[in-house]
């Protein structure tokens, strides 16, 4: 087994080094992409022009229209397309609304080739010129090398870059290096209702012959250096309820004679983290994976602008000064944040109330290999211990309304090796290997349900302004991204073939 | 001086004991009141029928009509009545609304007699049958010895009891024992806008010849035992703002690398009171008046149902077990209550936000002889010390949006002695000498501006249901209250005369 792995690694390395400069085939592809920039921009412009805002129910029709346009485009490439219905949702006014369909598409079924499934979404966040856009958000506008428009980066641009890459092979009448599958949704911006169920339902059919899953719905860490994302933190949210009676009391009439529930709650919340941000719950760090030398090196090579990140946050000083510590505490160590209190006075001004039932809310970001049940037990035990020491007559109730496990991929597997090779070819450098400190459920959801290799494969623009005004994709990233995906197809096909050969070697030996 | 005071005390004691059973004059008055119960109820019914709800601007006309009805009643008694205009207020829709006028009335100007000014209000809290009233709130309805209706206790009943008492003297063609002044407003339930300014404006004219001010707008502590209120706590409210940047951050992206402002705030709030409710701010108790043996005895004799009070609060266990400690901590010791946090997440559900600017809100109830400026300085100093030890890069700002000094009357002065005497005559027992833990500005406002003796003189019904459904005054308290006020007029006249004689003795000696 060890021998086989070494052989595979060797083959992978060989495959990778061979693509460190573009081949003739690659150059042919790049040339085609460069020559057809105007067409690719025209399509992006057409797609951005559709106000496929999934947040506002009145625009659902536009999301559906967007899905139909994309379906037609995939069909034109020769793909088999299914528009999967997700049912209806209930509006606040009681009316039910037909949800926009989700695209499931397939192109190619050659058992000799790997099958790569691409996930993307074509719905967008709301945008209005009056929000502070310098140009009309639904009219793609080029300025200073950037293409401005809602959805340019999130996520119409990357979806089109992938489709354009596929189209390039077709236009050049090249053999498709891989079989393609597409899962493209129209409800990402509202939390992807129905997606998890659909993946589960389709796991035995649609996903059974998928080898790799690629998501391109995030960003590089810097504007200059390509990145691959291999992990996201999980989270566990806690409600800490302290109740003292049935109704709020007047602090004049009862202040000084009762155990105020909020005093208990504040003491509990104050026991969670110390001044340095360290979580005080006993045992909480026990299962955090140990930092290996290999992982440590990843942080050293990441291009990360600490001052720039401070500027984005608006915060003057971080808890750590050096880049590595900051990255590790964002990505690979747990953190605890207190979000607020429900049931207390929260408005401007003053109300001299003794709130009688208060719910403190905090969450812990989870990292490998923390276990949700263990953390839940540790936190509950700790809070109950502290509370019991107060001898308060109030009632404590700790609950977990929401939790999600972290996601971590093996960055030495074929998928990541292929992407690194493609990046080296197109950008002439190695990517930043990054994680995301927040809890993005999509990668984890695909990995947990399908058990396939999953990679988040962004194509650029750390300053894309997703969800914000003046969202954009740079012209360069749109086309370099298209080249990157095309190169990746070749790379993964080659590595996959080598892998299969190695596997055959093992069988025949 | 000491001699004179002793003489006065002796005279006051003599005056008091002489009224421990009703005189012939008093019996004549009581008989009249008993015989005219139906008329007095009829008037209360008419007054309750006016929906003089000052909370809803659309009913302002009804408040004005109520003021005019009361003005006419006082004029019928021979009083000179001024309807003082309070100007206009701005409605949320931008329209301006003419505020209901305030009654300033005078009856009698005999320089030999003391002048007693009565304060009351004729506006009421909103009430609708659908709120859970068993009877129509604006139709005074008698049941089981109680008169149910909005304003029956708060405050139309007590205002009428006073006016009925005056009317009784007039009807019986008795010499008025005192000169009367009335200040009756229609905006008490909305915070008495304009009242403080009016008292200041009228201080040199209307109030210059007033000797005593009586307010009858609160309740006894029990349903059985009469009470006199001689103090209220003050309060000082604090805003503790901790700011870390310009905008809220995502706890996934920034959790673990920044000093979260709410963590600082929670630590500050947690440093304010200990488990037993004791305020931890150094020096805060230094100026709290020392408990004298005389004051201690007052608490022992107060009739206070600890279990009943627990039931009202809905709280299972108080910080103290015995009556005296509970009362002292409600009335004569400071307390600190945390009200809530502005700027943090406060809704149901979960939002994994790092709030970047949070404002903790708490208040301290002040008691004699705490000084607002000193307390403000102590609290600010303490919070700044604790904050500086955290070495947080966040910004702390502590401010005081609101403060009010406590009110305490001298219970040995003529006003209280007269009221105690009247209570002994009418109810055959000594009153509970009580305070209020909350900050009722009215008594303090009168005392501070006019420098006159002020007394809060309730006529009953601990279970009156003020501001609640099924508000009522018991039939018995309405008429006993009328008798009490009439007796009080005689009592204060007598004591005032004795005081003046003592004063003359001093001058002639």
UniProtKB/TrEMBL annotation, chains A, B:
Residue sites binding Mn(2+) 1 per the record: 154, 189, 467
GO molecular function: metal ion binding; metallodipeptidase activity
Span of domain Peptidase M20 dimerisation: 230-387
Residue positions binding Mn(2+) 2: 121, 154, 217
Cofactor names: Mn(2+)
GO biological process terms on file: proteolysis; regulation of protein metabolic process
Protein name per UniProt: Carnosine dipeptidase 1
Species, as recorded: Pelodiscus sinensis
């Amino acid at each position: 087994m060890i021998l086989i792995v070494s052989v595979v690694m060797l083959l992978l390395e060989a495959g990778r080094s061979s693509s460190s400069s573009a081949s003739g085939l690659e150059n042919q592809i790049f040339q085609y992409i460069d020559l057809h920039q105007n067409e690719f921009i025209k399509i992006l412009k057409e797609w951005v022009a559709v106000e496929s805002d999934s947040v506002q129910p009145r625009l659902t029709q536009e999301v559906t229209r967007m899905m139909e346009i994309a379906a037609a485009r995939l069909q034109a490439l020769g793909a088999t397309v299914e528009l999967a219905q997700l049912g209806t949702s209930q509006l606040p006014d009681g009316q039910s609304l037909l949800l926009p369909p989700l695209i499931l598409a397939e192109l190619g079924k050659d058992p000799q080739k790997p099958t790569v499934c691409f996930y993307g979404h074509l719905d967008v966040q709301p945008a209005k010129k009056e929000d502070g856009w310098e140009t009309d958000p639904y009219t793609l506008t080029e300025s200073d090398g950037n293409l401005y428009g809602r959805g340019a980066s999130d996520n119409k641009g990357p979806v089109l870059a992938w489709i354009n890459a596929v189209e390039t092979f077709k236009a050049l009448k090249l053999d498709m290096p891989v079989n393609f599958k597409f899962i493209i949704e129209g409800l990402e911006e509202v939390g992807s209702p129905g997606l998890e169920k659909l993946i589960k339902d389709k796991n035995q059919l649609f996903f059974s012959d998928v080898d790799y899953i690629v998501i391109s719905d995030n960003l590089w860490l810097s504007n200059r250096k390509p990145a691959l994302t291999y992990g996201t933190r999980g989270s566990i949210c806690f409600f800490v309820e302290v109740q003292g009676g049935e109704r709020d009391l007047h602090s004049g009439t009862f202040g000084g004679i009762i155990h105020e529930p909020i005093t208990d709650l504040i003491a509990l919340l104050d026991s969670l983290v110390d001044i340095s941000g360290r979580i005080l719950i006993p045992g909480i760090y026990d299962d955090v994976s140990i930092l290996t030398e290999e992982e440590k090196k990843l942080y050293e090579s990441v291009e990360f602008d600490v001052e720039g990140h401070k500027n984005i946050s608006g915060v003057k000083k971080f808890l750590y000064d050096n880049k590595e510590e900051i990255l590790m505490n964002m990505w690979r160590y747990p953190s605890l944040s207190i979000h607020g209190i429900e049931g207390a006075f929260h408005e401007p001004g003053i109300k001299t109330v003794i709130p009688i039932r208060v719910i403190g809310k905090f969450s812990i970001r989870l990292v490998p290999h923390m276990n949700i049940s263990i953390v839940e037990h540790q936190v509950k035990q700790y809070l109950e211990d502290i509370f019991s020491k107060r001898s308060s007559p109030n009632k404590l109730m700790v609950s977990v309304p929401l939790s999600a496990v972290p996601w971590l991929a093996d960055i030495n597997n074929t998928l990541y090796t292929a992407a690194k090779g493609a990046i080296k070819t197109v950008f002439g450098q190695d990517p930043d290997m990054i994680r995301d400190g927040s809890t993005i459920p999509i990668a984890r959801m695909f990995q947990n349900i399908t058990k396939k290799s999953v990679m988040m494969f962004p194509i650029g623009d750390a300053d894309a302004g997703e969800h914000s005004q003046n969202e954009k994709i740079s012209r360069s990233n749109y086309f370099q991204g298209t080249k990157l995906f095309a190169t990746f197809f070749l790379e993964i096909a080659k590595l996959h073939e080598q892998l299969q050969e190695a596997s055959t070697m093992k069988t025949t030996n």
